[in-house]
Write a structure and sequence with these properties.
heterotrimer; B: about 260 residues; alpha+beta; Ribosomal Protein S5, domain 2; six-stranded mixed β-sheet; four-stranded antiparallel β-sheet; 5 helices; about 30% helix; C: about 240 residues; five-stranded mixed β-sheet; five-stranded antiparallel β-sheet; globular
C-alpha cells in the first residue's frame, strides 16, 4: 500500500527530486495535493486521487463543440479551460464548406493539445492519426485523476478490455473515453470503466476486472 | 459548461439501458432509491429531519412563531413552506433569491401538506382572530442527485412528525406535540416517451426534464399533481403513472412510519 | 440567556471542560456527491457542511483574473440554525465572515496555477453554536483537500476567549456572550508545524501578554484539530482503497 500524503506534508530536503504534485520552499519539498506518494531514486511525486483536468501539451483530449466562431471551434474539454480547434487544424475543413457543416454544436471530437499560452488558452489539433470526429459509439466520463488506472501499466488494462470485449477505445486524458462496437459490449465496457474508477487504487484490480468481464459476458449470452 | 456536457454524455447510456428495459443503477422502473431518514438532528429547531434518497440529501428544519391568523381562518394556525436551493447542493445552483425551481418545489411540497390536512391547524390557535402559531418549514437542499422534490416532501413530513410546539418558551402554556393527521407522500416520475421512471436520478434526468409528480394521502387519494417540463402527456400514461404512484407512495409511507416513532 | 454568576468554577467551565479543552469534534469527508470536494463537521453544537466546486470556468467573464484563480467563499446560515428563525439570505455578519474566511484561503491556495478560473467554497451552517466561523473554516479546509486543490498546507481554525479574567480555548455560547474578549484564529499548518496565521479577528479587551498567551493556547487547540482533520481524510481514502 502506497502512502497517502496531504498538502503541506514534508517530503524531502533534496529539492532536485521535486516532481509532479510537489512544491519547493526554501530547501524543502512539500506535497501540494492529496495523493499517493511515489518515490524513486531520482524523483518524488504525488499522484492525485482527485481533481480537475488541467491540459498539458501532447495530451489526447475528447472535446464537445460549444461555440462556432469565424475561424474555428470552441470545445468543452471537461476542465476549467475550453480548447480552441482552429479551422486549419481540422482536415475535414474545405473551402466553400461552412464550419458548422464540418462540426456542429454538440459534436464530439478526439483531439491533441498542441499549445497552451500563459493565460491557459488551449489550442488543439485534429491533424494526428488518433484524431477524428465522433459520429458513432459512446462517450463515458470519469474522474480524470483515475485515467492512468484505466490505461494501466504500459496500456495493460486497456488492452485487456479491448481484447475481451472486442471494442474500440480511445482514452482522453481529460476523463472522457470513447467506446465503439457492439452496443451490449459497449455497455459492459462502460460498467468496467466505472468499476476501475471506483477501485482505482486497490491491489489486484486487473484480475478483478477480467473476472467481472467474464461474468457479465456469461449473463448476456 | 463542464457540468452540462457530463450529463449530456450520460444520456446515451441511460437510453441504451432503457432499450433493454433496465435502469443504469439496476432499479425497477417503479422503485425508489434507498431511503434513509434521521430525525431531530437540529436541537435548535422545533423539529428536523435529514433525508437521503440515494445520493440526494435534504435537511428540513421547523421553526415556530406566534403571529396573526388570516382574517378568513381566525381560529387556525399557518404553515409557510420555503425552499433554498443553495449553491452547495449542485454546480448549477446560483446564490441569490429563490428562482422558479425552488419556488415550484416549495409550493408543491406545501400543497401536499395543506391539501392532505396533514397538520391539524385548528389545534394551533392561541387567541381567536389574534394569536396563532405560524409553522415555518424550511427546506435546505444539500446534494441534488435528482428528485429533490420527493426527498424534500419526505423530509418535511418527517420533520413535522417530530415537531414540538414550543409553547413554554413563548409563555403560552406547556409544550405539546404537533398534531399530525395524515402522511402525504409525493411520487415524481420522469417521463421518457411512453415509459416512466419513478424517483429519477440526476443522470436519468439528462434525457429531458419532463416529470410528473403525484402526491398521495394515507387513503390513496390524490392531493396534489404537478406536471413539470415542456412535454405532452397522454391520458393513458397519466393513468398508469397514478396507479404506480399510489403503489410507490404506500411503500414510502411504510418506511416513514418505520423511521418516525409517531404514527397517525 | 441569563448570565451565570461564574463561568469558571474550580478551573472547570460550565460544560465541564478544562480551560484548554476543545468541544467534541466529528468530521466526515466526501459527504456530498455533486460537489468536487466536501465535508460535514460538528464542533460542539455547530453542524456545518462545506462544498468545493472548481477550479471551474469563471462566470460572469468580468470576474476572471488572467493571472490566477478567483476564490469565492459563501458562509450561509440555514433559517432553522438558530433559536429565532433567521430570514434566508446574507446579512452583514455573514458577508464579513465570508470575506475574512475567503482571504484566509487565498493565502494558502495555489491560485496562480489556474488563471481565469474560479474556486467556489460554500459552507452551510445547519446549526449554529459559538465559533461557527471556525467550524466552517475547518470543514472548508478538508473539502478543499478532498477536491484535489493544490495548497501550501491546511488551514485549521479555533477561537480563544477571555472569561472571568482567564483564557479559555474554543468558547461555547455562554463564554462567547458574557466573556470579556474573543479571538478567532486560523493557522496554516504543514505536516506537524504551525507556520503562520491566516485569519485573525478580535473583539473585547486584552493585554499584550494575554494575547501572546492566547496564541499559544490557540496553537495547541489547532494542532489537535489538525490531527482530526488529517485522520478523517486518511480514513476516507484508506477505506476506499480497501473496497473489494
Amino acid at each position: 500500500m502506497r502512502k497517502i500524503v496531504l498538502p503541506g506534508d514534508f517530503l524531502s530536503n533534496n529539492t532536485k527530486l521535486a516532481s509532479y504534485g510537489t512544491y519547493v520552499e526554501g530547501e524543502r519539498v512539500y506535497a501540494k495535493i492529496l495523493g499517493l506518494l511515489e518515490e524513486t531514486d531520482n524523483s518524488i511525486k504525488v499522484i492525485p486521487l482527485k481533481g480537475k483536468y488541467t491540459p498539458s501539451v501532447g495530451d489526447t483530449v475528447i472535446g464537445i463543440v460549444n461555440e462556432i466562431s469565424a475561424n474555428g471551434w470552441n470545445l468543452d474539454i471537461n476542465s476549467p479551460y475550453q480548447a480552441f480547434l482552429p479551422a486549419s487544424e481540422n482536415p475535414e475543413t474545405k473551402p466553400g464548406k461552412k464550419l458548422n457543416e464540418v462540426l456542429d454544436m454538440g459534436d464530439s471530437v478526439i483531439t491533441k493539445v498542441v499549445n497552451i499560452d500563459p493565460r491557459m488558452k488551449v489550442t488543439v489539433t485534429m491533424r494526428e492519426k488518433i484524431c477524428r470526429a465522433i459520429r458513432f459509439g459512446r462517450i463515458v466520463a470519469i474522474n480524470p485523476a483515475r485515467i492512468p488506472r484505466v490505461i494501466g501499466k504500459k496500456g495493460s488494462m486497456i488492452k485487456l478490455i479491448k481484447n475481451e470485449l472486442e471494442v474500440q477505445i480511445v482514452v482522453g486524458q481529460n476523463g472522457l473515453i470513447w467506446l465503439n462496437g457492439d452496443r451490449k459490449k459497449i455497455s459492459i465496457a462502460e460498467e468496467v470503466i466505472y468499476l476501475i474508477e471506483e477501485e482505482a487504487h486497490t491491489e489486484g484490480l486487473t484480475d478483478r476486472v477480467a473476472e467481472f468481464i467474464r461474468r457479465r459476458k456469461n449473463v448476456q449470452t | 459548461m463542464a457540468e452540462d456536457i457530463l450529463s449530456e454524455i450520460k444520456k446515451d447510456y441511460v437510453l441504451s439501458k432503457l432499450r433493454d428495459e433496465e435502469r443504469i443503477d439496476g432499479r425497477k422502473f417503479e422503485d425508489f432509491r434507498k431511503l434513509e431518514i434521521k430525525t431531530s438532528i437540529i436541537e435548535k429547531a422545533e423539529g428536523s429531519a435529514l433525508v437521503r434518497l440515494g445520493n440526494t440529501q435534504v435537511v428540513v428544519g421547523i421553526k415556530m412563531q406566534i403571529g396573526e391568523p388570516f382574517p378568513d381562518t381566525p381560529e387556525k394556525g399557518l404553515i409557510i413552506v420555503n425552499a433554498e436551493l443553495v449553491p452547495l447542493a449542485s454546480p448549477t445552483f446560483e446564490p441569490g433569491p429563490p428562482d422558479e425551481n425552488s419556488v415550484e418545489l416549495a409550493r408543491v411540497v406545501d400543497r401536499g401538506i395543506r391539501e392532505s390536512e396533514a397538520v391539524d391547524l385548528s389545534k394551533l390557535c392561541i387567541e381567536i382572530g389574534k394569536k396563532v402559531w405560524i409553522i415555518f418549514v424550511d427546506i435546505h437542499a444539500l446534494d441534488d442527485d435528482g428528485n429533490l422534490l420527493d426527498a424534500s416532501a419526505i423530509a418535511s413530513i418527517c420533520a413535522l412528525l417530530n415537531t414540538k410546539v414550543p409553547a413554554s418558551r413563548f409563555g403560552v402554556g406547556e409544550d405539546y406535540e404537533l398534531p399530525i393527521m395524515d402522511l402525504p407522500v409525493s411520487v415524481t416520475s420522469l417521463i421518457v416517451g411512453d415509459k416512466f421512471l419513478i424517483d429519477p436520478t440526476r443522470d436519468e434526468m439528462s434525457v429531458g426534464e419532463k416529470t410528473l409528480t403525484i402526491t398521495v394521502d394515507k387513503n390513496d387519494n390524490i392531493v396534489a399533481i404537478q406536471k413539470s417540463g415542456g412535454y405532452l402527456l397522454s391520458e393513458s400514461l397519466f393513468e398508469e403513472v397514478i396507479d404506480a404512484s399510489i403503489r410507490a407512495a404506500r411503500k414510502i409511507r411504510e418506511e416513514i412510519i418505520k423511521y418516525c416513532s409517531k404514527i397517525c | 440567556m441569563f448570565k451565570p454568576e461564574k463561568l469558571i468554577f474550580d478551573g472547570k467551565r460550565i460544560d465541564g471542560r478544562t480551560l484548554d479543552q476543545l468541544r467534541p469534534i466529528k468530521i466526515e469527508v466526501d459527504f456530498l456527491k455533486r460537489a468536487d470536494g466536501s465535508c460535514y463537521l460538528e464542533m460542539g453544537k455547530n453542524r456545518v457542511v462545506a462544498a468545493v466546486y472548481g477550479p471551474r470556468e469563471a462566470y460572469p467573464r468580468h470576474i476572471q483574473d488572467p493571472t490566477k484563480a478567483v476564490i469565492r467563499y459563501r458562509y450561509n446560515m440555514a433559517p432553522f440554525s438558530v433559536e429565532e428563525r433567521k430570514r434566508p439570505g446574507p446579512d452583514r455578519r455573514s458577508v464579513e465572515i465570508s470575506k475574512v474566511s475567503k482571504e484566509a484561503f487565498e493565502a494558502v491556495i495555489m491560485k496562480e496555477l489556474f488563471p481565469r478560473s474560479v474556486i467556489d467554497i460554500f459552507v452551510e451552517v445547519l446549526q449554529a453554536d459559538a465559533g461557527s466561523r471556525t467550524a466552517c473554516i475547518n470543514a472548508a479546509s478538508v473539502a478543499l483537500v478532498d477536491a484535489g486543490i493544490p495548497m501550501k498546507g491546511m488551514l485549521t481554525s479555533v477561537a480563544v476567549a477571555k472569561v472571568d479574567g482567564v483564557l479559555v480555548l474554543d468558547p461555547m455560547k455562554e463564554e462567547d456572550n458574557f466573556g470579556e474578549a474573543d479571538i478567532p484564529f486560523a493557522f496554516l499548518i504543514r505536516g506537524d508545524r504551525i507556520e503562520s496565521i491566516a485569519l485573525l479577528q478580535m473583539d473585547g479587551r486584552m493585554t499584550k501578554e494575554e494575547i501572546k498567551e492566547a496564541i499559544k493556547l490557540a496553537k495547541k487547540g489547532a494542532m489537535e484539530i489538525y490531527q482530526m482533520q488529517r485522520e478523517a481524510i486518511m480514513k476516507k481514502f484508506l477505506e476506499e482503497g480497501e473496497n473489494g
